[in-house]
UniProtKB/TrEMBL annotation, chain A:
InterPro entries: AAA+_ATPase, ABC_transporter-like_ATP-bd, ABC_transporter-like_CS, P-loop_NTPase. Coiled coil: none annotated. It comes from Salsuginibacillus halophilus. Belongs to the ABC transporter superfamily. Transmembrane segments: none annotated. Signal peptide: none annotated. It is an enzyme of class 7 (translocase). It catalyses: a quaternary ammonium(out) + ATP + H2O = a quaternary ammonium(in) + ADP + phosphate + H(+). The complex is composed of two ATP-binding proteins (OpuCA), two transmembrane proteins (OpuCB and OpuCD) and a solute-binding protein (OpuCC). Keywords: ATP-binding, Nucleotide-binding, Transport. This is Carnitine transport ATP-binding protein OpuCA. Residues 2-237 form the ABC transporter domain. Its EC number is 7.6.2.9.
TrEMBL record, chain B:
This is Osmoprotectant transport system permease protein. The lineage of its organism: Bacteria, Bacillati, Bacillota, Bacilli, Bacillales. Residues 19-203 form the ABC transmembrane type-1 domain. Pfam families: BPD_transp_1 (PF00528). It is found in: Cell membrane. It comes from the Bacteria. It is a multi-pass membrane protein. GO terms for biological process: amino acid transport; glycine betaine transport; transmembrane transport.
Automatic annotation (TrEMBL), chain C:
This is Osmoprotectant transport system permease protein. CDD domains: TM_PBP2. Belongs to the binding-protein-dependent transport system permease family. CysTW subfamily. Signal peptide: none annotated. GO terms for biological process: amino acid transport; glycine betaine transport; transmembrane transport. The lineage of its organism: Bacteria, Bacillati, Bacillota, Bacilli, Bacillales. The chain crosses the membrane at residues 6-27, 52-72, 92-120, 175-201, 207-227. It is found in: Cell membrane. Residues 46-227 form the ABC transmembrane type-1 domain. It comes from Salsuginibacillus halophilus. It comes from the Bacteria. Keywords: Amino-acid transport, Membrane, Transmembrane, Transmembrane helix, Transport.
């Protein structure tokens, strides 16, 4: 879907912003470009829609090299969201969202229908906001509109440059959830820039970790946490990487890895389901006055009681 | 060119005395304009309705073409026998200077960071103490900017006032035009421009001095 | 009604009383005699006045706006500081000096007046066009480029609407100053309503003074107010509302 082959960018003066990066991103994959500021993640993103030139190598989107595509046409086919939302203050919400469809010459009915669909998708009633202007909305609402605008012409690929970075933590968490829901239905191929490891873990199918324009690791979040490729990666993911990774595993993962004791029915305790996060389980076990913890079994009955030792065993198993 | 230089050589004393006249006119009118405009601007921050009216009136006065204002003032001041000369020029310059001075003072005081004002109140300052110790010092760069605008404006209008007998560098242009003396016109135009640019530059330096270091 | 509102109200009425008293006094002393007795001459002077203003400010508009746009394009950005500094410096030069210098180039007559007023109007328009275009949020331009707008589309759909407020303010300043300065065109043989004002000064004749000065003043104030209204139509609603909201906080 998006193919980076030996991509480099050297600024005049010899500074290498991007150093020989090759990545292959699959259809419908959500990839987060992660790293400290100045690592080149934004540059790499902006190369895809040719807002930045590349000095060497090649980027292909849907099989065709970006050099062969018309800059303007390809940009209209790629959704683009930036941190400071970049909404146009001179246009109404409807005109903002419909910028690309208008340039593509969609009919009035088609635009209206699409606007209403998108506004419902992001949970903002279309009639309430149609004639509003960007400054009349809250920061979170503006960022939702930014997302809707990028989705307007239904592009297969979305480029997002720290889209939720300027929001306060509570609103950011809510919008991340909403956006994950949207992504589950739409299945876009997404490149998403972030400097926040927690955001990356929460959203990404795979994470690209960069430092000084060089690729450090390109892997699933749990791999990044449990099997860091080098010193920098383990430092970047932090001392609490094990705790972080627990939020990526669920009860069913543990059941698949370990043989758990059979529990007799009707015991007083807390029962966790297949999809529950192991982070919650651990939190329960560490409670000062813990109740026994059991897992629900597919074939009926319960497994347990589960102890901290089980978690330890599971973590050892995963990082081995 | 050589012709012009020899003109300067012959007439530098005249040009110098016209410059002094020009500066005198500015000195009197700007001093009065500041004495009126700054307190008025400060007072207006306490009365928003009045501020709207006064600022609107001052901005309309500023759109009146200077020569037309002189034309209107001559019949009025003739009633007290002062139709032409120094007085109408001073009155006109005071009127024109009001908008930049009042507006900048008003904005400067109004724009003082509410937190700073809050802190001053919290420390138990009276309104007058707060004004003198906090609001005016913090608003000084903007107030000075208004005075600077008024000064540059007044230098140009002061040149036009020569046509109603106020004296100053405009006299050179007036006489130059009526006698068809190109050198006189150029000398007058250059002297006025240099005076305006020098005043702008000098006041900018003073304005910077008033700005707290961290704002610069 | 509190005492502050009363003061504001009294001052407002006082302003109106002064204006009405002025007109009552000038009318009852027959100071508009020149207009009433020589309507053709008045029409001729007014026409010449408007002619100078229109020609010089249209030329200034047609030069300064494209120049401002050009100087904010990446290709020419490196020359911008020269023009901005020249414009800054140029605006401190008094209008009478520019008129006198133009006469040095073109001699006495309407051409010299038009040249001087053209140069004089150029600077505020250029300055405000550049300032307006430079103040456009870079994020909006980046988003527009990223969505596939062409540079021309970005200019017309994003940059110019967002810069409109500043640009119109510059044009307004330029034209209002132009109307006033045209009254000085008489001095270099340009004609216009200044003819009566200067005749009035030389002859110490109130009818000439008032018949010349009052129409010029009304013209300047009217055009200024017209532009204020025009700003309401030309500046996009969203930006106007945003500015108002920003000013209120």
């Amino acid at each position: 879907m998006i193919e980076f082959t030996n991509v480099s960018k050297t600024y005049p003066g010899g500074v290498k912003a991007i150093d020989d990066i090759s990545l292959s991103i699959g259809h419908g994959e959500f990839v987060v470009l992660l790293g400290p500021s100045g690592c080149g993640k934004t540059t790499l993103l902006r190369m895809v829609n040719q807002l930045e030139e590349l000095t060497e190598g090649e980027i292909a989107v849907e099989g065709s090299s970006i050099h062969d595509l018309n800059k303007i046409d390809m940009r209209r086919n790629i959704g683009y969201v930036i941190q400071s939302n970049g909404l146009f203050p001179n246009m109404t919400i409807e005109d903002n969202v419909m910028v690309v469809p208008a340039m593509l010459g969609w009919s009035k009915e088609k635009k209206k229908e699409r606007f209403e669909y998108l506004m419902n998708l992001i949970g903002m009633p279309p009639e309430t906001y149609r004639k509003n202007f960007p400054h009349e909305l809250s920061g979170g609402q503006q960022q939702r509109i930014g997302v809707a605008r990028a989705l307007a012409a239904d592009p297969p690929v979305m480029l997002m440059d720290e889209p939720f970075g300027a929001l306060d933590p509570i609103i950011r968490a809510r919008i991340q959830e909403e956006f994950l829901d949207i992504q589950r239905t739409l299945k876009k191929t997404i490149l998403f820039v972030s400097h926040d490891i927690d955001e990356a873990i929460k959203l990404a199918d795979r994470i690209v970790l960069l430092k000084d324009g060089k690729l450090q690791q390109f892997d699933r979040p749990e791999e990044l946490l449990n099997r860091p490729a080098n010193e920098f990666v383990s430092e970047f993911v932090g001392e609490d990487s094990v705790l972080k990774s627990l939020s990526l595993y669920q009860v069913q993962d543990m059941k698949a890895k370990l043989t758990l004791p059979e529990a007799s029915d009707g015991l007083d305790g807390t029962v966790f389901k297949h999809g529950d996060s192991l982070r919650y389980v651990l939190s329960h076990l560490l409670h000062p006055t813990p109740k026994p913890v059991y897992f629900e079994r597919q074939e009926g009955g319960l497994a347990g009681p589960i102890s901290v030792a089980h978690i330890e065993a599971f973590v050892r198993e995963m990082t081995a | 060119m050589g012709d012009f230089l020899s003109y300067l050589g012959r007439n530098y004393a005249d040009i110098f005395s016209y410059t002094i006249e020009h500066i005198q006119l500015l000195g009197v009118s700007l001093t009065l304009a500041i004495l009126i405009g700054v307190p008025l601007g400060i007072y207006l921050t306490t009365n928003e309705q009045l501020a709207a009216t006064v600022l609107q009136a001052a901005s309309i006065i500023l759109t009146i073409p200077s020569i037309a204002l002189f034309g209107v003032m001559i019949p009025i001041l003739s009633l007290v026998g002062q139709g032409i000369g120094f007085l109408p020029a001073v009155i006109a310059l005071i009127l024109y200077s009001q908008l930049p001075i009042i507006r900048n003072t008003y904005t400067a005081i109004n724009n003082v960071d509410p937190n700073i004002r809050d802190a001053a109140n919290g420390l138990g300052m009276t309104t007058m103490q707060r004004l003198l110790k906090v609001e005016i010092p913090n608003g000084m760069p903007l107030i000075m900017a208004g005075i600077r605008t008024a000064t540059v404006l007044s230098i140009g209008i002061g040149a036009i006032a020569a046509f109603i007998g106020s004296g100053g560098l405009g006299v050179l242009i007036d006489m130059g035009i009526s006698r068809g003396n190109q050198n006189m016109i150029i000398a007058g135009a250059l002297a006025i421009s240099i005076l305006a640019i020098a005043a702008d530059f000098g006041l900018k330096k003073i304005q910077m001095k008033f700005s707290p270091k961290e704002i610069q | 009604m509190n005492s502050k509102a009363v003061i504001a109200w009294i001052v407002k009425i006082a302003f109106w009383v002064v204006i009405i008293a002025f007109f009552w006094w000038t009318i009852s002393n027959n100071m508009y005699a020149q207009i009433l007795e020589n309507p053709e001459q008045f029409a001729g002077l007014l026409g010449r006045h408007l002619q100078i203003v229109l020609i010089s400010s249209s030329l200034a508009l047609l030069t300064a706006v494209p120049a401002g746009i050009l100087l904010t394009r990446p290709k020419f950005k490196k020359y911008e500081w020269i023009f901005v500094n020249t414009a800054n410096l140029g605006q401190t030069i008094p209008s009478i000096a520019i008129l006198a210098l133009a006469m040095g180039f073109l001699g006495i007559g309407i051409q010299a007046a038009i040249l001087a007023l053209y140069v004089y109007s150029l600077l505020p328009i250029l300055q405000n066009t550049i300032a307006g275009l430079k103040s456009v949020d870079p994020a909006a331009k980046d988003a527009a480029a990223g969505m596939g707008m062409t540079p021309t589309q970005i200019l017309f759909k994003i940059e110019l609407p967002m810069a409109a407020s500043s640009m119109i303010a510059g044009i307004r300043t330029a034209i209002v100053l132009n109307i006033g300065t045209t009254a000085l065109a008489y001095l270099i043989g340009g004609g216009g309503l200044g003819v009566w004002i200067f005749t009035g000064i030389q002859l110490f004749d109130n009818t000439y003074l008032i018949s010349g000065a009052v129409p010029v003043t009304i013209l300047a104030i009217t055009v200024d107010q017209l532009f204020r209204v025009m700003q309401l139509f030309l500046v996009p609603k969203g930006i106007r509302k945003a500015q108002k909201a920003a000013a209120a906080t």
